[in-house]
Design goal:
single chain, mainly alpha, 4 helices, 77% helix, flat
């Protein structure tokens, strides 16, 4: 690949292949894992083309998730709820509130 837009097209193609495997009549877990691995590899290539370290990008994303989840837990507690006792809809609402705070 010569530029990031070509790599991004490959990322989309790999994600489509994951989707195809997800909706297959008979899901093949090994094939699904292989396709997800291809997504990871393609994303790493995209990072490389953008002069980003894929491990740092992933680490930063993990940190962001943990920060947001901690805040979600705080909001749930403030509302008198534990995360484990919250519905999917309640958690989604809290998640959106956390994202708006940022």
């Amino acid at each position: 690949w010569d530029d990031p837009t070509e790599v991004f097209a490959q990322v989309r193609s790999e994600v489509d292949e994951v989707h195809e495997e997800l909706v297959a009549a008979k899901r093949n877990t090994a094939k699904l894992a292989e396709e997800i691995g291809d997504v990871y590899f393609s994303l790493a290539q995209l990072c490389r083309h953008l002069d980003l370290d894929p491990e740092i990008v992933a680490l930063d994303a993990n940190r962001k998730f943990l920060r947001r989840f901690q805040r979600l837990e705080e909001l749930a507690k403030k509302n008198g709820k534990a995360v484990v006792d919250s519905s999917r809809e309640e958690l989604e609402s809290l998640w959106k509130a956390v994202k708006l705070e940022e």
